[in-house]
């Protein structure tokens, strides 16, 4: 009988209990139970909301190396058909955070059992998918006390085969902002449109006009994305809608472009207010800083990967993906990399099925790299 890799089992356990941001109570309890099962001589642990800080003391520390994983799920109904599918209605680990956690626990376990010279700080961060846990976690007394000198993290990449590590120096992920626009006009009977201000029509016009920002206001050599992913409006088929709501996201490759795009959003919304005699309210929700990999540290990691015959290095392009790990990299030098997991379905898809073979790859690569950087001899 073949024994299952313990961290594959952990991944499957965690996959069944996805929870939304700052609601990861079962997840935190599971993580705590596992961490408490390890030898505790060098382990110190502090809770923050639904997240965790776990410090592993080194033998002769001169610095602290940080490793961060996110722990929350998404509001998606799973369609994988896996025997270990989500047990939580309309919630799924559709962005690989179950993988991220199991890998982090694998790395943590290795260094608890095989201590190195330097201290290690493992950060189990809630609410990456929203409303954002990295920035407030960074400001905590716990983080200030155990602040790492360098930090790293990974994200699964469905498009790359298992055994692939993809990374680049500098900008990796975009600046992102949520976008919510509420419109209020005047409702009424469908037979008397002249007596109303129809917010379904206003919303349709607004969506079309927002798309001109990227095509006509952003430098063609720059990049930006405005996506409206959800529109709600009206109540029934024979009542003209008094209210409508647009929900979307803005993504840019520079903070300056984000400011410009928001300025244009606000100008267009003012035009909709005037043209449709309505009221509009804009809410930018959660905003994430770009993920910018420290050039020197990332270059060292790339050279390390290139010398490992068991993995394939890919120099990737920057992506419009958003990640609040960018806030940590803004203050702590480090990097994030893509881990190939070979799934036919992409991130945030209800049928995302990453290959579990990637867990071993990640644990081996990360432990080897951290051991190299964290031992003085």
Fold blueprint:
Blueprint: H1 6-15, H2 25-36, E1 43-48, E2 51-56, E3 64-70, H3 97-113, E4 119-125, H4 134-138, H5 141-145, E5 150-157, E6 164-167, E7 170-173, E8 175-184, E9 188-189, H6 199-217, E10 224-233, E11 239-240, E12 243-252, H7 255-276, E13 279-283, E14 287-288, E15 291-293, H8 295-306, E16 312-315, H9 325-331, E17 334-340, H10 357-374
Parallel strand pairs: 3-4, 3-5, 5-17, 6-16
Antiparallel strand pairs: 1-2, 2-4, 6-17, 7-15, 8-12, 8-13, 8-14, 9-11, 10-12
Notes on the structure:
- Its cofactor is Mn(2+).
- An 8-stranded mixed β-sheet has the order 1-2-4-3-5-17-6-16, with helices on both faces. Strands 8, 10, 12, 13 and 14 form a 5-stranded antiparallel β-sheet that branches.
- With 377 residues, it is of the alpha+beta class.
- The longest helix has 22 residues, at 255-276.
- α6 runs antiparallel to α7 (255-276).
- It has helices at residues 6-15, 25-36, 97-113, 134-138, 141-145, 199-217, 255-276, 295-306, 325-331, 357-374, and strands spanning 43-48, 51-56, 64-70, 119-125, 150-157, 164-167, 170-173, 175-184, 188-189, 224-233, 239-240, 243-252, 279-283, 287-288, 291-293, 312-315, 334-340.
- It has 10 helices and 17 strands.
- The chain is elongated and about 80 Å long.
Concise account of the structure shown:
With 377 residues, this protein is α+β, with helices and mostly antiparallel strands. The protein has helices at residues 6-15, 25-36, 97-113, 134-138, 141-145, 199-217, 255-276, 295-306, 325-331, 357-374; strands at 43-48, 51-56, 64-70, 119-125, 150-157, 164-167, 170-173, 175-184, 188-189, 224-233, 239-240, 243-252, 279-283, 287-288, 291-293, 312-315, 334-340. The model has no long low-confidence stretch (mean pLDDT 97).
